[in-house]
TrEMBL record:
Keyword NADP appears in the UniProt entry: no
Residue ranges constituting the Galactose oxidase-like Early set domain according to the UniProt record: 621-717
Species for this entry: Lentinula detonsa
Classification lineage: Eukaryota, Fungi, Dikarya, Basidiomycota, Agaricomycotina
Signal peptide: 1-24
Protein name: Copper radical oxidase
Length: 757
């Protein structure tokens, strides 16, 4: 018998792992076992995405050098691993692709290893984890940004413990379909100073995105096999550092698939709704996620760059009164959140069986006899089928504009009355799955804070058609429609213009200058995946639109759009893509995942981040050097700035950067504040007149001098207090509902379509 120290250590390891290594303290990370999966087991993030290829440790393509032993256990993939405790023992592997992942076990006996690609040291990966039983098939190393072509991977044991090889997974992406761009590769037009560069990874697919401070953004996805891991399982949320481009995983309990979100008046961010427990295609006991349909996830941002962010969920005491998937969440004039619409469970196109044509509020309100429970909406009932993720804006008079399907209205939540608006012209539908995008145009005292709405893109596909009669090649719409929300404007109706290219699922982003840049989207098809004919990969849409377009809202009708001088991307941004203005004035573009789970096929899961920088990013800019941190309604406040040019045109842009998902930029807003006077380096200005013009809550302030904005600084508008709490309404919601009631109602039958779109 081999009696070397290496073998004896491996032998003890083998004895521990002859049965599945599951102990009472090592259950699925939330300890949640729904009826569909009755046997909890430790989650293993091993996953071979469509378009990728896995190689077990016994593959003849893997070469071992040194003292390696084969260890057998039913806990391991393929029932066996190669393991060594010998210093300098190596694994060598030649592959052709754009990425590679190493999966192995971790516990207290394991240690570090040096990872080389093409003879370059790229990582020192640590297989140590503080568990007595090995955690099988953990992702120990991954990279996804290699140039297409041949590469050599070498893993060398550092000698402070053992290392294992369960599997290697190679990402094999065709260069023609998804070119890999190197970090900080820049695209600059020869005719303009607009630039586009790739820098950073979101770690999880950017289905949802919100800037939470001057230095950070939060990225939220659905439960899936993302490469970013936390506590031994894939993360589905992350914090992205806007300065360093580094990403940190966040722990989330429930499935946030297609949730909505909003900030409250006190700065708290809520993430609302989602999808049931993942069960049909993976083991729910493995993933450990909770039902997200009623979830209200609470996130407390902080402005210290080094503070930790936590997502809190309390399903027993904080939840919605009804399940919602694809709901829109809007901060209204009292600083609370209005939660509207959605579907009662996952699916695809909405229908009368699962439609949730109601509103509710967070914190719950006792209005119109509801006592915190949902309030019926005739509009959201009558706009079926294409009415998920309604486009909504809080208006200066406190009412709410809502567009769904090809209809629109103004809703007075205080009186529960609807004022119908003229239909969106030419039969264009603008909400999921015929998704367009929309913005509330800038407000100022110069236009008497008169609200005007812009809706762009979408589709004229008949939303009553089954998927078998819809094609990924059905043309999207290039239409952009504007309407002024005054009596005269409503009577005049929508003004129609057209983008240079048709777009489904576009993202429209307000700049501090008052201009709008439109990015992302497809030229044909509809939103979702796996539902229509002529799918590309499994995408319901095709023909990605790769060139941004600039919209100048003050230009003459017919000449407002231009793509001249705009750099084109080479990364398709299809379904589940996002874009947002960031505090430095650039536009962050991320996401794209028209897939059930992480995929490497055409229109696969995209983690790279692009940065679209307007010309003002490349020259001298004004600077806000000191501010008071908050501004009251109608109150005069001051800023200290760098010395301004004599006679320059000054504007002060107060902006909500929004919560972005599915082409809906909820709460996105720009208000030009009144500048009262300047004295040296001190600028005096007046806050917005009321919460209708700017709902109380967080904002970013940009000083714009002669069309060039400063970097934004975060401030609080209003008194920073929480929205009013009605304790009786909260108690009634809790008494009248059950936590995760959808999971309970479906018992052991499961859901046939919970993961389809």
């Amino acid at each position: 018998m081999n009696t070397s120290p290496s073998f004896l250590l491996l032998f003890s390891y083998l004895i521990l792992c002859t049965a599945p290594c599951i102990f009472a303290g090592d259950s699925a990370w939330n300890g949640h076992t729904p009826p569909e999966s009755s046997t909890p087991k430790t989650f293993a993030p091993y996953y071979v995405a469509p378009g990728a290829k896995g190689y077990s440790s016994s593959s003849p393509f893997i070469q071992y050098k040194g003292d390696w032993q084969i260890v057998y256990s039913p806990s391991f993939n393929h029932k066996a691993v190669h393991s060594t405790c010998q210093k300098h023992a190596t694994i060598s592997f030649n592959f052709n692709g754009t990425g590679v992942e190493w999966f192995g076990n971790c516990d207290k006996r394991h240690g570090a290893a040096s990872v080389y690609i093409d003879k370059n040291l790229v990582s020192v990966s640590n297989a140590y984890c503080n568990t007595t039983s090995p955690l099988p098939s953990q992702r120990l190393f991954s990279t996804f940004s290699l140039r297409p072509g041949a590469h050599r991977l070498v893993i060398e044991n550092s000698g402070d413990g053992c290392i294992d090889l369960n599997d290697l997974v190679v990402t094999r992406v065709e260069q023609s379909s998804r070119p890999i761009l190197r970090r900080q590769l820049q695209h600059r037009s020869s005719n303009s100073d607009w630039t586009l560069n790739v820098d950073g990874s979101t770690g999880v697919n950017a289905m949802q995105l919100a800037v939470i401070s001057e230095t950070h953004a939060i990225v939220i996805d659905k439960v899936e096999h993302n490469p970013l891991t936390i506590n031994g399982h894939p993360a589905w949320a992350s914090i992205f550092d806007l300065k360093s481009r580094q990403v940190t995983p966040l722990e989330m309990q429930s499935n946030s698939f297609c949730a909505g979100g909003s900030f409250l008046s006190n700065g708290t961010l809520i993430n609302v709704g989602g999808n049931p427990v993942v069960a049909d295609h993976t083991s729910a006991a493995d993933f450990g996620d909770l039902d997200g349909l009623q979830a209200i996830r609470i996130i407390e941002p902080c402005d210290d760059r080094h503070c930790s962010i936590k997502i809190s969920e309390f399903h027993d005491s904080v939840r919605m009164a009804s399940p919602r998937w694809y709901n829109t969440v809007l901060r209204i004039d009292d600083g609370s959140a209005m939660i509207m619409g959605g579907s009662k469970k996952g699916g695809w196109i909405n229908n009368a069986t699962v439609n949730n044509p109601t509103y509710e509020f967070y914190p719950p309100k006792d209005i119109h006899g509801s006592n915190g429970l949902p309030i019926h909406s005739p509009f959201l009932e009558q706009t079926l089928n294409s009415n998920l993720f309604p486009i909504a804006f809080s208006l200066p008079d406190g009412r709410v504009f809502i567009a769904a399907n090809n209809d629109a209205m103004i809703y007075d939540w205080k009186t529960n009355t609807e004022e119908r608006l003229p239909p969106i012209p030419n039969g264009v539908r603008v909400t999921y799955p015929m998704a367009g995008t929309g913005l509330l145009l800038p407000l100022s005292s110069e236009n008497n804070y008169t609200p005007e709405v812009l809706l762009c893109g979408g589709s004229t596909v008949d939303d009553k058609k089954p998927g078998s009669e819809i094609s990924s090649q059905d043309a999207a719409s290039s239409q952009c429609s504007r309407i002024v929300l005054t009596r005269e404007g409503i009577q005049a109706g929508w003004e129609v213009d057209n983008m240079p290219q048709a777009r489904l699922m576009p993202d429209a982003v307000l700049l501090p200058t008052g201009q709008i840049v439109i990015v992302n989207g497809a030229g044909s098809g509809i939103s979702g995946y796996g539902n229509v004919i002529d799918q590309v990969g499994v995408s319901n849409a095709a023909n990605p639109v790769l060139t941004p377009v600039l919209y100048n809202l003050s230009a003459d009708h017919g000449s407002r759009f231009t793509s001249q001088g705009m750099p084109s991307s080479s990364i398709p941004r299809m379904y589940h893509s996002v874009a947002t203005l960031t505090p430095d004035g650039s536009v962050m573009i991320a996401g794209s995942n028209p897939n059930l789970d992480r995929s490497e096929i055409e229109y696969g899961t995209e983690y790279r981040v692009e940065w679209l920088s307007p010309p003002y990013m490349h020259g001298a800019r004004p600077e806000i050097r000191k501010h008071q941190g908050s501004v009251g309604f109608g109150e005069t406040s001051s800023l200290e700035v760098n010395r301004l040019k004599s006679g320059s045109d000054l504007k002060l842009a107060l902006m909500d950067l929004g919560f972005v998902t599915h082409a809906v930029h909820s709460n996105s807003r720009l208000v030009f504040l009144d500048v009262e006077r300047t004295s040296g380096n001190t600028l005096l200005f007046k806050g917005p007149p009321n919460g209708g013009v700017y709902p109380p809550g967080p904002a970013f302030l940009f000083l714009v001098e002669d069309g060039v904005p400063s970097e934004g600084v975060k401030i609080m508008v209003g008194d920073g207090k929480s929205p009013k709490v009605d304790q009786k309404a909260i108690e009634n919601v809790l008494k009248s509902t059950q936590p995760d009631q959808y999971e309970k109602s479906r018992g052991k039958k499961g859901s046939e379509d919970e993961d389809s779109e």
